[in-house]
Design a protein that fits this description.
By secondary structure, the protein is of the alpha+beta class. It is built from 4 helices and 4 strands, in the order αβββαβαα. A hairpin with a 5-residue loop joins strand 2 and strand 3. The C terminus is likely disordered. It comes from Trichonephila clavata.
Length: 165
């Protein structure tokens, strides 16, 4: 617990020392959604000895979500699915370009480096730049790409603290 509390304070101090405001601090993470998966267990009555089995569905998609610390700028999501053109899209004539997400596909539904870099260049960068310019904030967003700076400064701060002990 102490390490987490120390890190939060150190991160907050670093953000303030670098002159960032919450509108400039962005976080991006990915999450998986098994959208057809059934619960692992079911409750059956005492009269029933067993529940008829079913083949578990493992249809999964991955979403990369991103927003700033103040919560007023949410970036268009990156969605990765195993199918390039799902049957539902074809039958309803849905254009992926019109979706509220950047749609990409690969057989394992993973966010690859290629997809992430493409999303950063086509969605994240332009969206953040537009957001910051519209609000006349300095155009220097703090995101995971800035993390090497944080790690370097954190290790310096930690080593200087331990040498002072």
């Amino acid at each position: 617990m102490k390490a987490a509390e120390d890190y939060i304070k150190m991160f907050s101090d670093l953000i303030k020392a670098q002159g960032y405001i919450s509108q400039q601090v962005f976080n991006c993470d990915e999450t998986g959604l098994f959208w057809k998966k059934m619960p692992n267990r079911t409750y059956i009555t005492a009269e029933e000895k067993m529940m008829p089995g079913h083949k578990p569905m493992k249809d999964r998609l991955i979403l990369a979500l991103c927003a700033n610390a103040s919560g007023d700028c949410k970036i268009k999501h990156l969605l990765v699915y195993h199918s390039e053109n799902p049957r539902a899209f074809r039958s309803h004539k849905i254009l992926k370009e019109k979706l509220q997400v950047m749609w990409r596909s690969n057989p394992k539904a993973w966010v690859t480096r290629k997809f992430f870099v493409e999303w950063v260049n086509l969605v994240f960068g332009p969206s953040v730049k537009k957001y910051l310019q519209e609000r006349t904030y300095p155009c220097k967003p703090f995101s995971s790409s800035t993390m090497p700076l944080l790690i370097h400064q954190t290790s310096k701060m930690t080593s200087s603290r331990s040498s002072n002990l």
